[in-house]
Amino acid sequence: MDPLHVESGECWVHLAFDAASAIDLERAESRLAEAHRVARASSDSAGASASRESISDSKRTPPGIQFRPKPLRLVRPAKPLAIGSSQRTTEPEVELTIYEFGAISVAYRVRIADASLEDLRRLTNDLADTSPMLRDARAQIDRVLGETGDAARRIRVADPIEDYLVLHLRSWRHGTAKDEMPPLASLAQETAQILRAADEPLSTAEIEDALACTISYGRRDLAIIDWNAAILFEPDPRSAADLLAVLEFANVELVELRFLDDRLDGILDAAYRALGSAGEGDGVPALVSSSLLPWRRGLDREHRRLAALQMDSALLFEGVNNAIKLIGDQFLARVYRLAAKRFHLAEWDAAILRKLETLQQLYEKASDARATRRMEILEWIIIILIALSIVIVFVPGTK
To answer: Could you tell me if 151 and 21 are in contact, meaning their C-beta atoms sit under 8 angstroms apart?
Structure first.
């Protein structure tokens, strides 16, 4: 007999993209509202709805915990997508969450009803291939960015993409008990297989790792957070929405940190090439000022470009890390810390900070060397002028 039976719930598939360098949410909301009015006027379709997402105030979530600024959330009609070889499909709508720092998260929902744990395992296994959703998500993002117009700055749908599954179970039975949490140990093997989308039984070590990050607020709720998926036993819809928002943001933060890490690798490579090749071929010191040697202007432009990229990267890093303040011992803050631990966000942060510091050191050394070389050239010019003033006295016909 199956140890647990799910009566109702849904599986959320979150796909996170870096879509632009920044998005003016106020302007984007206005442009999208106008596009919505035009769509409703030209057809019978209900079009899309837009709102600002927020964390609800409750005992679990004090008013101080909130997105700043609140991301823009869209719900749009969409074609249902088939899930693997099963009869399941996504719901005929898609949710997009737009963040000020340029990220967009696209969420698809699959309803769960009258399901066993084996049904959930097959579902997560089928959802291991998200390629149909990725194609649709890119089309949804292109459409949204087209409608927002100049609200999005420097549009770029970058390659790093992060997907994350969240199974929200609203109602369940364990034996004769309804909505009561069974001992996790009795569900360990099945739950770990669901989280890891595993066909075969897992080892004890793998099970322990999959179930290492769990948290609950009361006796009738439980969140199990893994690196690939999470399971939420949560009857309260408002609390579930808050948990989903935090997990979605953690996934967005991961994709932004991955994008930043890749970008900084490219900037560092370009900086090394620029500094290494600057003095090749002309016998002139690498860091001579372009104001004195015009053929060095290309080098100065490259330095300015790299410096601008460095500043943009630093601003994006700060924007991502300051989008929501989840510190202290509040419940959602602890949920976020578990997700951050699973996603290794601290390690990504440390790697990015090291690269930003390396870039800063490179530019400081380059600036010092350029200033030194400029002073040397000015000193030589002064010496030459003094020498000329002395020599010219002895030239016949001069005074």
So the answer is: no
User: pTM for this one?
Assistant: 0.82
Q: Strands 162-174, 229-233: parallel, antiparallel or unpaired by DSSP?
A: parallel
* Interatomic CA distance for residues 325 and 246, integer angstroms: 11
Structure token pair of residue 159: 């390659």
More confident residue, 7 or 394: 7
Q: CA 222 to CA 225: how far, in whole Å?
A: 10
Phi, psi torsion values for 85, nearest 5 degrees: -95, 5
Give residue 179's identity as a one-letter amino acid code. Answer: D
| Residue 8 CB-density burial (10 A; 0-12 exposed, 13-18 middle, 19+ buried) | middle
Tell me, letter by letter, the H, E, C secondary structure of the chain: CCCCEEEEEEEEEEEEEECEEEECHHHHHHHHHHHHHHHHHHCCCCCCEEEECCCCCCCCCCCCCCECCCCEEEEEECCCCECCCCCCECCCEEEEEECCCCEEEEEEEEEEEEEEHHHHHHHHHHCCCCHHHHHHHHHHHHHHHHHHHHHEEEECCCCCCEEEEEEEEEEEEECCEECCCCCHHHHHHHHHHHHHCCCCCCCHHHHHHHCCCEECCCCCCEEEECCCEEEEECCCHHHHHHHHHHHHHHHHHHHHHHHHHHHHHHHHHHHHHHHHHCCCCCCCCCCCCCCCCHHHHHHHHHHHHHHHHHHHHHHHHHHHHCCECCCCCCHHHHHHHHHHHHHCHHHHHHHHHHHHHHHHHHHHHHHHHHHHHHHHHHHHHHHHHHHHHHHHHCCCCCC
| Residues whose CB is less than 8 angstroms from the CB of residue 336 and which lie 6 or more positions away in sequence, other chains included | 246, 249, 250, 326
Beta bridge partners of 167: 11, 231
Q: What tokens appear for 310 in the block?
A: 């460095």
Spatial CB neighbours of 207, under 8 Å, sequence gap ≥ 6 = 188, 189, 192
Q: Which two tokens stand for residue 146?
A: 């087209």
Burial grade of 215 (CB within 10 A; 0-12, 13-18, 19 or more): middle
Distance, CA of 173 to CA of 179 (rounded, Å)? 6
> Tell me: the pLDDT tens digits for 62-111?
455 567 788 888 899 899 999 877 788 999 999 999 998 889 999 999 99
Percent of the chain with pLDDT over 90: 36
